[in-house]
Specification:
372 residues; alpha+beta; four-stranded antiparallel sheet; 13 helices; 26% strand
Length: 372
């Protein structure tokens, strides 16, 4: 079922008597069980106030359409949502509703925040078919319960988004990168942490052990970027690495690939996304014994490519963070669960919210449930 209006969406959800699998472009391959319910027909930018740095769009609007409109005004989605196509081998087009429903946030999250931090307002249909609106078009216009933040990252289990309003930011004049070559994982995380703790406004920090490259991104006016890169060289002169500088084009190419986890495209094995404290990242990666690993967010995010069927949560043990299974067979996802099991208190709160917003349990049923 593909709906073409919010009212049609509400009527369908109110009348359906079985689970529905909510999806936009379905590029992540993570829709729940049940009859497919697509919001791809809810498409189009309904308001764009570039002077106020705000946009309103229907949930099924392709991200590419959003980014093209922003580019004309030299603006952007600062949280740079990744495109999962190449990583998971999916088809379809990423949609702006899917981005916020899954809180899809890229490498710049470490400096500007996550997708949810840019979400200003939502319209959605709950599990009983009621149309709900919360938030507004400016940051101060949020009243009552903050359903905006609640919906971000709920993966369609509390309601089906029909429209989102969000903040955008200006595109910087240029960008560049300072590259450190030859560091091991521990030294790379230490260098990235030092760079992020400096006053030089690093907007991305990543390390690829396979290439031996640790890459630090800086953005802004050309003279400022050049000055800050030189200052960072001084900060990191004791890291024991060979230093080089990339221009804007090379920097853009690298970070687009980092955003979309390009080194894992077409490679065998499962893919896990591990969020943790940067200080423990090298130890966790060593325990994982993966086929390959990538660090982002200065070590706060680790991408792991593992042999098929590996129970990465069992291998990592207890740690301050969580491990999400991004790419695997249906059997492995069913056996291990896509999401990290919640703590008992959080699980009770989650169950209460679902009972309130989707009392019949029909929206993406089972998608975020823990495996017994």
């Amino acid at each position: 079922m593909t709906v073409i209006s919010e009212q049609e969406l509400a009527e369908y959800v109110a009348s359906v008597d079985k689970p529905v699998s909510v999806r936009g472009g379905n590029t992540r391959g993570m829709a729940g069980s049940g009859e497919a319910l697509s919001v791809a027909g809810l498409s189009g930018i309904t308001l764009y106030e570039h002077g106020a740095l705000t946009m309103v769009a229907q949930a099924g609007t392709p991200v590419a359409e959003i980014e093209a409109a922003l580019a004309k005004e030299n603006q952007r989605l600062a949280f740079e949502p990744m495109d999962h196509h190449g990583l998971v081998g999916s088809t379809g087009e990423p949609t702006i509703g899917g981005v916020f429903a899954a809180n899809v946030s890229g490498p710049r999250r470490i400096s500007v925040g996550a997708a949810r931090d840019f979400l200003l307002g939502v319209r959605f249909v709950d599990g009983q078919g009621a149309i709900v609106k919360n938030g507004g078009r400016v940051m101060k216009n949020v009243t009552g319960y903050d359903l905006v933040k609640l919906m971000a990252g709920s993966f369609g289990t509390l309601g089906v988004m029909s429209e989102v309003s969000f903040k955008v930011l200006p595109r910087p004049e240029t960008q560049g990168a300072l590259v450190l070559q030859g560091l091991d994982d521990g030294a790379a995380v230490a260098a990235m942490s030092a760079a992020m703790g400096s006053p030089y406004e690093v907007s991305g920090a990543a390390h690829n052990p396979a290439s031996g490259q640790t890459v630090l991104r800086l953005e802004g006016f050309e003279a400022s970027v050049a000055y800050r890169i030189e200052e960072l060289k001084t900060v990191l002169k004791g890291a024991g690495a060979e230093l080089s500088v990339w221009d804007a084009d090379a920097t853009l190419d690298f970070w687009n690939g980092q955003r979309d986890v390009l080194p894992f495209h077409g490679a065998d094995g499962d893919v896990w996304r591990v969020s943790c404290k940067p200080s423990i990242a090298p130890t966790l990666a060593a325990k994982a014994e993966p086929l390959a690993r990538l660090y982002d967010w200065a070590g706060g995010l680790i991408w792991l490519r593992t042999t098929t069927g590996t129970d990465m949560r069992a291998r990592l043990g207890d740690f301050d963070g969580h491990a999400t299974l991004i790419r695997a067979s249906s059997e492995t996802k069913a056996r291990l669960g896509v999401f990290q099991p919640e703590a008992p208190g959080v699980a009770k709160l989650t169950a209460g919210l679902r009972a309130r917003f989707d009392p019949r349990g029909i929206l993406n049923a089972g998608l975020m449930d823990a495996v017994a």
